[in-house]
Amino acid sequence: MYGVPSGACTYVITEFVQAPQTQAEPFYAEIEVFNRKEIKEILSGHLQAYYEYHCNRAEDLTENVLETAQLDADTGSNVFEALFADKEEFRDRKSSRKFLETATCSVYTKVLHKLLAWVKDLVSLHGGEKGTIHRSSDTPEEIGGSLVSFVTKNQFW
Length: 157
Fold this sequence. Notes:
Blueprint: E1 27-32, H1 36-54, H2 63-83, H3 93-100, H4 108-125, E2 132-137, H5 140-151
Antiparallel strand pairs: 1-2
């Protein structure tokens, strides 16, 4: 499942299955991680949308196109602030804007690579290098608590 018009970078699919006899704890979750190519496409799309609206905006855009561009730019900004809330560059909206506006044509690739490196670090931190993060627990509350950081803005990762 890939690609929704809203530009979301997460999907939630819930599947309940009988636990295999080899499963040690009663509750288990798998979090599938986007591959590097997908992550690059998502980050690049959000960065491009932000840049085009805030830094390269044409004055002759229609109101509808401008409104859509603003929504796309805001989505990108929100995604970056949620993903990188622990980074100095995203400590607040002003810092975020200052950092993202450095993504001019000459340094766009450098900024994108920095964002990609941060995501790689986040994935590694949670053991998702092979594409899946695993969590298990004894209670539904524990498993739910271990998943909060994957679905809550500003607590992501």
